[in-house]
Structures are given as C-alpha cells and as structure tokens.
Amino acid sequence: MQKGGAGTLSQKSLADIQKEVDAYIGQFKEGYFSPLSMLARMSEEVGELAREVNHHYGEKPKKSDEAENSIEMELGDILFIVVCFANSLGIDLADAHDRVMNKFNTRDANRWTRKNVEP
C-alpha cells in the first residue's frame, strides 16, 4: 500500500477515484472538456512532470524565481486528467487496467528476466 499525500494511507479504489472526480466535475455547468481539449491538457501536464523530473534528476536546475512543484503533485494532476478523460468517455479504469495487465502477462510473459526464478 502506498502512502497518500501528507503521510496518510489511501485506500481508494479506481472506482472510488472515478466517482469522486465525477462528483467534483458534476457540480459545474461546463462539465467535462471535449476529448481533444483533454488530450491537450494531458500533454500540458506531462510536460510539467517532465520539467520537474528534469529539475530533480537532470542537468537543468530551477531558476531562483520558479515555483516549487513536486513530482507527486504533477503525477496527481496527470491522474486527475486521465480520470476525467475516462469518465467523459464512459471507460471503467479498473477494467481497462485488468485488460492491459492481461495483455502484458500474455504478450510479454517471457520478454523480461524474472527475479528469483529457479531453473
């Protein structure tokens, strides 16, 4: 189990997260953005994550007047927009995850060297 923000343990399922985001968006007349707008927004957020990763692990230090953002918050922003995107298209992310894991477990079953495998 992973720690949530501020040292708390999060036990939300993907379904819980999707419902929480839907309730948040549902209180506004504008609702979800169009798929193209969400894709653009996702691209923006991934760029912000790339910038933070570059500051923390790359050769590009922050400028002295740049705001302090965290990789955790940028990943949270990406998760939010992914959930918005899925909700707007009626996609159950837990089901999508299960389907993707099945694909990796079958297609890539022998692709990588496994740890602690006895002959």
What's the arrangement of secondary structure elements?
Elements: H1 14-26, H2 35-57, H3 71-88, H4 93-107
Helix pairs in contact: 1-3, 2-3
InterPro entries: MazG-like_dom (IPR004518), MazG-related_YpjD (IPR012359), YpjD/YvdC (IPR047046)
Pfam family, one: MazG
Keywords: Hydrolase
Protein architecture, described:
InterPro entries: MazG-like_dom, MazG-related_YpjD, YpjD/YvdC. This is Nucleotide pyrophosphohydrolase. Keywords: Hydrolase. It holds the Pfam family MazG. GO terms for molecular function: hydrolase activity. The chain has a single domain, classed as MazG-like (Helix Hairpins, Orthogonal Bundle), CATH 1.10.287. It is 58% helix and 0% strand. The chain has four helices and no strands. α2 packs antiparallel against α3. It is mostly helical and 119 residues long. The protein is extended and about 55 Å long.
Features:
119 residues, mainly alpha, Helix Hairpins, 4 helices, MazG-related_YpjD, hydrolase activity, YpjD/YvdC, hydrolase, MazG-like_dom
Mean pLDDT: 89
Question: What general outline do the C-alpha atoms trace?
Answer: extended
Estimated radius of gyration: 18 Å
Query: Helical amount among residues, as a percent range?
Result: 55-70%
Q: Give the low-pLDDT segments.
A: none
* Protein structure class: mainly alpha
CATH superfamily: MazG-like
- Taken in chain order, the helices and strands follow as HHHH
Number of helices: 4
- Please identify the top-level CATH class: Mainly Alpha
Kindly report how far apart the N and C termini lie: 31 Å
Quick one: how many beta strands?
0
Please state the second-level CATH architecture: Orthogonal Bundle
Integer tally of domains: 1
Biggest sheet details: none
Strand content: under 5%
Kindly identify the CATH topology.
Helix Hairpins
Organism: Paenibacillus rhizovicinus
GO molecular function: hydrolase activity
Protein name: Nucleotide pyrophosphohydrolase
Pfam family, one: MazG
